[in-house]
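Dear V.,

Thank you for sending over the compound details. I've combined the ligand you provided, zinc ion, with the protein sequence from our construct and run the structure prediction for the complex. I'm sharing the raw inputs here so there's no ambiguity about protonation or stereochemistry in the SMILES, which I know was a concern on your side last time.
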Amino acid sequence: MEIRVAGKEDGGDGHGLREGEELSFFYPSSEWDFEQGFECKCAGRVGGEVRCIGTVKGAKWLDRGVLGKYWVNPHIWEMVGETETETEEKLQGTTKKTEEVGEDGKDEEVELKN
Ligand SMILES: [Zn+2]
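Below is the predicted structure of the protein with zinc ion bound, written out as structure tokens.
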């Protein structure tokens, strides 16, 4: 099992963990949904940059953009893909049409868009 200790931005040059650097682990890189979340104690010191995610609850609860900043296991990206497909299907299924009275008094059909 491989455990990356540096985010993409930190590890972009492939240096990995350097002497004196704090060891941290990005839980959402391998965990989808925690039964019980917890507050991260790193105080935002990730590679000298403030970008702590705060409450750690799993990848399910994070923005795709946030996840993209880290190295994330392929199975997590698969879960992200499945969730996005489900959401799209739900949105398409719930697209409603509503009646609205136009200026000329005639009823106009208006499609609601997100
Ligand atoms: Zn943190």
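A first observation: The helical segments are 8-11, 64-67, 74-93.

Warm regards,
I. M.
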